[in-house]
User: Fold these one by one.
Assistant:
Number 1:
Amino acid sequence: MQSKRRLILFVTAFAVVFGFLAIAAPLFAASKEKVLYSFCTIYACKDGGDPTADLIFDAAGNLYGTTDSGGASGAGTVFELSPGADGTWTETVLYSFCPGGWPCADGQQPQGGLIFDATGNLYGTTSGGGNFCFGITSCGVVFRLTPGTNGTWTETVLYSFCSASGCTDGASPNASLVLDAAGNLYGTTEMGGSYGSGCKGYGCGTVFELKPGANGTWTETVLHSFGNGKDGTYPFAGLIFDAAGNLYSTTVMGGPYGWGTVFELTPNANGKWSEKVLHAFSYGKGGESPWAGLIFDTYGNLYGTTEAGGAHNVGTAFELTPGAGGKWKEKVLHTFNGEDRKDGSNPVAGLIFDTAGNVYGTTTWGGPYGWGTVFELTPNANGRWTEKVLHFFNGDGRKDGGNPYAGLILDAAGNLYGTTTVGGANVNGTVFEITP
């Protein structure tokens, strides 16, 4: 989380130094925001604080997520929010990390979101802690939470990173996981891998797979180590599958121009995986530094965001379209402009589609109050996209949140849900709902 903030501050400062260009203000669509829960309402923030990850729903309409801090030991939580008949939501902490105190063998600081399996277990990652993290804070674990009959949840560490010398197995997973049909888990680590001498000596990151065994153990395999000089570095986002079983995601930095990549991993018959850079970002209008993952549309095009770059150097929303010969073409759907304070800036979260083909996302900064936005992008018949700002966060310590690092989810009625890292009753973040 701290490394994430430091880089965002650097890029933002860089943009300010070199100045911005003015463009026409985006449309603003009136919408209603409701703070469902403000964190740190319990003494010493035992209910959690600083949520940075996307939320998920269960079949009953309850929300689940993680907080980067807070909990019984201040090392983060997994929480559930349940709606009541009167419109209020009740928070339950399902698990507090590091109950026995440092060095937190069960993990600490979960920055990624959660996923369910078919039997109702939750899976996630922590960016720190683990069995091999003595004196180091950025090792991390993959964990499972299993519900019990009495409402309690039991945590099991499926894998602790840095078990291999030099952390060649990866270090610091920051994103959500993805499950395949066989029950294998896939994810990324921001650091570690085979190229430990690169990326300031900590490795440049990995893509990994975890396979369950008959005896309850899980075996990790590194599918790709970043930092070979041709690919990207620092994969911060999670992965997605296509119908053929290929994996896709982004790297924050690296590539031929140094400003990040979109990559594909393809499984081979021999069990190995081949990496291909589909797009390399360069300094300028095409966007720089994609922190977030990707989504597909029904035609096989990829969509995502960059935290910097674009016409005003405060980020873009982009589309990648596959073409002949395996080439992919980038199109900037929207370039953000936080300078006139009528648009957001620096999106670090991914995008989602609604059933009509509109795209939704958040920006961490920008807007008239400087605390970020929720936006909608609508495709037009001429191939262009129109942006509407659905909500400007004001960072108010009592009424609203600010600085959303996470993306959004939709319910069946078209309402949007997300988290902010600051603001709320005790300025430690919120869960919010927006009704367009």
Note: Residues 2-18 form the longest helix (17 residues).
Number 2:
Amino acid sequence: MMEGYSVRKAAKVCDINRNTAFMWRHKILDALSQYQDNQHRMTGVVEADDTYFSLSFKGSKPVGRKSYKRGSPASKRGISKEKICVSCAVARNGQVYSKISALGRPTAKALQTVFRKRFSKKSVVCMDNDSPYNVCQA
């Protein structure tokens, strides 16, 4: 997973069955998610920003939508409802937190929900100048 290998390649490298590699990957991701949710508040200087990924329906067939070829661009330019917003925070002491915040551009309420109780009172939070972040001072 750290090398970014596909499930098939990871299974080959680890000399295990493809289904076992798939199950292990999901167990690791679930454990990391639970660990992240139980982390304490971030301290020190914390930098927060968003990143966007294309919306994926892998494994399902939504009604009224044609399949995309791998690597094909979104039909709309810029940030739209075709992108998933993942809000991230990284403290300079090594603490990391990320969570899906919205479909498209996040609102101040969505960011407050994501970052609620994540920063200590004494932490210095550095955010960009997007208007939702201006309201989201913790």
Note: The chain has four helices and four strands.
Number 3:
Amino acid sequence: MATRERREQDRERRRQDILRAARVVFAQAGFRRATVEEIARRAEVAKGTIYLYFDTKEAILADLVLEALAELQAQLIAASDGRPLLHPDDKLRAMADAYLAFTERAPDYYRLLTAFDGGQVAANISAERGELILAASNRTLDLVTQAVADGMALGIFPMGNAHHAATVLWAALNGTLALLAHPIRRAMIATDLHDLYHATVELWLKGLSCPDGAPYNPAKEKLL
């Protein structure tokens, strides 16, 4: 039994070595230009060894995406569930801040999530990995949805579709990040990322609160 456990531990260490190497290679070269050969060189293993653990380069990316989502989820939980006395709108602000911090402290993880979302990467992984990523992504969005639903239950926000509202916030924040990632757009807007990011959050909260008293209606796609 001890020998079997040792083999399993060695196998998991080797897998983690490959993932760490791939994270560096993807960050330096980008997913599209990165090669399995370069990952193998950095991990100090033969190229064939990589395929004992991962069928494709996309499968490596998928497992790194799962790591990134786990890290993001932990940070969102710390910002929300870890601070239960926060007012719902302050909890949403805290989670938005946690997301921004995640993109700045682990930019390689954020770029991996972006790389996975684009192109045909998802089509080239197993159904099992795809389901795991979908479930992890849903768990992350559910944290925001729950905060919105709590605000609705307390009468802070009008009753409506909490999941739809959380999705709109996610889209708005990712749009802000993508917009200011481009140097020409940064010059056009002439504003700081943090200022625009927080303005986006506040505008979303203002729209969610519906100051005119009308309940939030996702069918009309009106948050403001």
Note: The chain has a mean pLDDT of 87.
